[in-house]
Amino acid sequence: MNADASTKRPGGRSARVRAAVHGAAVALVGERGADQVTLPAVAERAGVNSSTLYRRWGTLAALLADVARHRGDASAPPLVGDLRADLENQAVWTLAELSRPGGIAFFRAEVAPDVDERHDGLRECLHGVSERFRPVLDTARERGDAPPPPSLERVLDRIVAPLYFRVVFSIPGTDEAYVRALVAGLIGEAPLER
Amino acid sequence: MNADASTKRPGGRSARVRAAVHGAAVALVGERGADQVTLPAVAERAGVNSSTLYRRWGTLAALLADVARHRGDASAPPLVGDLRADLENQAVWTLAELSRPGGIAFFRAEVAPDVDERHDGLRECLHGVSERFRPVLDTARERGDAPPPPSLERVLDRIVAPLYFRVVFSIPGTDEAYVRALVAGLIGEAPLER
DNA sequence: GCGCTAAAGCGGTGATCTCTGCTTTAGTGC
DNA sequence: GCACTAAAGCAGAGATCACCGCTTTAGCGC
Fold first, then answer.
1. If exposure means fewest CB atoms within 10 Å of the residue's CB, which of A55, A143, B24, B151 is most exposed?
2. Are B39 and B123 contained in the same domain?
3. What is the pLDDT of residues B72-119, one digit of tens each?
């Protein structure tokens, strides 16, 4: 569970192993699905001894959760200062992240861990999503936008939830245009009725 | 894979075994979580030999998908002929079904099966949800309701998706009142702003 | 360079799972 | 009732996984 890159010895080897393992995990989950992946399999693909994985991560769920956490760090789009644009950007990025090979698999992994840790994984995942949208709404409110921005809860219901739902069920037509329609439906001047 | 109750010999014993296995699966998933359940464990709880499970279902995912399919058959609420009431009833029932112990676990099981069958499981699950709401909209349309009912896609986005999302992330306050607010937000005369 | 030590590698062990050939039980049609 | 056979039970083999003591490697501070 402690898998901070910055714990004790972040130098060469640990970091290399970490990177190799993360890469192998992403690859395997992408091509087999999270259910068909085991720690030994990841270890072999990464060219690393499996005992290392058991020591550093303990369980597959913990490893996948770790991967998910550090996935797409520092790639989130910046705020531009316009509510509609920012909502669209964050939503499009969220959609893209979910749609990446194994995207939902990692989402599921974070949701899935053993019953004890399940709640933590869930909270963390939801927190991550929320924190991507909260600044958007906060700055809009501080800016004093004409119609005050919707609540975070509403954004989750009207934008994030449909995205997750549609990606999980791979409903066709879930693209950028659809995201824009969702945003438009939420903050008014809905152009196209879907 | 083929697990129709009505294949070759639906008589006494097969049906009993089937029921025992389904019950054991529900119990175990409910108390341990789907990840901690194995076919031998289900077999033992059901008082059935594990080879039977391997022969009839093959994999845990297939078993759970089978259970999910036959879960809550014939318990869905009837149509009363009023769009709002019917939407609310179906949505409340869906929420209740998802919230049952292991509810999301079974949802996930249907979503999860090995990559080959994943698409089938997904399609079937989505189809099941859709078919609960489609009649509601169809009858409303045939009835010639004043504002025509929303599209099925819209119902999925605005009602079903938030429910799934909130149950998966166990967001508090996801109850009957919330469902009514969702419906109200969709078909107009939204009473309470959330 | 040189020790120090965190972390990775190696090998092995017990437990569990998955699957299969054969036997036995018990519905179903006559 | 009685034969027929689908389906369940039994037992065991092979594979894999989870885990752990010990050894070896290689960053890091001096």
1. A55
2. no
3. 666 889 999 999 999 999 999 999 988 887 777 777 666 554 555 666
